[in-house]
Amino acid sequence: MPDTPTLEEFRTEITAFLDANAEPKVVDTAFEWGKGDDDVALFEEVDREAEKVEVAKAQEWRAKRFDAGFGWISGPEEYGGRALPGAYDRLYPGLEARYKVPNQSFFGIGLGMVAPTILAHATPEVKDAYLRKMYRGDIVGCQLFSEPGAGSDLASLQTKAERDGDEWILTGQKVWTSGAQYSDIGEIICRTDADLPKHKGLTGFVVDMHAPGVEIRPLRQMTGGASFNEVFFTEVRVPDSHRLGDVNQGWSVALTTLMNERASIGTGTAGGMGLANISRLAEMCRYFGVIDDPIVRQRLADVYINFQVSKFTNQRAMDKIKAGQLPGPEMSIAKLSLTNNLWRTANFVADVLGPRIIANTGEWGTYAWGQLLLGVPGMKVAGGTDEVMKNIVGERVLGLPKEPGIDSKTAFKDLLVGTQTN
Ligand SMILES: Cc1cc2nc3c(=O)[nH]c(=O)nc-3n(C[C@H](O)[C@H](O)[C@H](O)COP(=O)(O)OP(=O)(O)OC[C@H]3O[C@@H](n4cnc5c(N)ncnc54)[C@H](O)[C@@H]3O)c2cc1C
Fold first, then answer.
1. pLDDT tens-digit map of 310-341
2. CA-to-CA distance for 5 and 21, rounded, in angstroms?
3. For residues 274 and 292, what is the distance between their CA atoms, to the nearest angstrom?
4. Distance 201 CA to ligand 1 centre (A)
5. In this predicted model, what pLDDT tens digit does every residue of 56-66 receive, in sequence order?
6. 361-364 contacts: CB < 8 A, separation 24 or more?
7. For ligand 1, which residues put their CB under 6 angstroms from it?
8. Which residues lie across from 190 on neighbouring strands?
9. Could you give phi then psi for residue 61, rounded to 5 degrees?
């Protein structure tokens, strides 16, 4: 490929774009207690009006980045990608992180999970209609999988899709839908044949979140914010062209999304909380006079060592991908390691701070940690609970036998005997 820049040339190209369009962050290596931002929240707590402004800023930046050729670096050219190898894609985020750019988390689900599923399973019409717009930030996507009776056991979902000529009619309820309030499209998995076993009668679709019959209601979480929703579908019409994969083959569509979800959560950093910087915790211990306590020192070291172990394990997985190999068990334990590390940290901080973590005295770096403590349980559930991840490691990595069940052979409608159906 004569036009392919070398990685070094590409780095120069990215840096020139960032220099021209964003302000560099001040590199502050020495952490000082009481200075700067003490926000360590895992979930955004902004109100929905303020969020709209943030989304608009994020979209503006995303469009600028896309128009400069950095919106979908490894994506196919026909959908606005640069068709460069994965290594070029991996170069960009580290360089952008050195600059002050608007919060890009609104695109995490759409680009991390929904777009790769569209690329793998959608019709050419849907790929044409959405992929470029998604990577340019013109539209945002969400994931409509979980239901009140189907979370870990996703294949038990009951939202129905019934065929009506060239359209499908969707009726049912989804829940815990992150970002539905600012999304334009959603990837939804529906039941299309209850006479088949539960994994076999599902079909995936791309649904317009602004279509008549879609109702989005916020759900408040214990951190105080409302970053997710319940979404009701009342006879929502979806064109057959918006089907993902074949009819009744929705389970493999869902698996494409879930694999991308787990990889992106697990290998995500805890950098936003400043946890990568152990000094924040060490300085807290010093400030509250417990830095010489041997038990505290041991627990602090434990937190640090475990973050390092995860970092190197993730690095090993990334190196395998770079070398063109398939990542192995590292990916299965990535999410578990992250949540265990966050939990260990939150408990350590709670013990050091004592009542300061629950009583807001206005003191810097104390009450703010409550947001982490209250947010970790959500992380332990989102994208596959810890218990479910352990089952996966047990069965697929360690080769332990699967739990026996009747689910794989029995018609879904017969599994519902005695339960309410919609
Ligand atoms: C922050 C956050 C964001 C989310 N965003 C989205 C989103 O955008 N879209 C979406 O579709 N969903 C989303 N979810 C939902 C999430 O995928 C589900 O909460 C998750 O799959 C668990 O399902 P559940 O809540 O129904 O719990 P359940 O599946 O009912 O689990 C209850 C408990 O039982 C345990 N358990 C269940 N099955 C087993 C088993 N086989 N073996 C051992 N233990 C088991 C679980 O570990 C858990 O402790 C989000 C959740 C959170 C917390």
1. 889 888 888 887 787 777 777 778 889 989 99
2. 21
3. 23
4. 21
5. 999 999 999 99
6. 364/33, 364/34, 364/38
7. 109, 142-146, 151-152, 176-178, 228, 378, 381-382, 385, 387-388, 391
8. 203
9. -65, -45
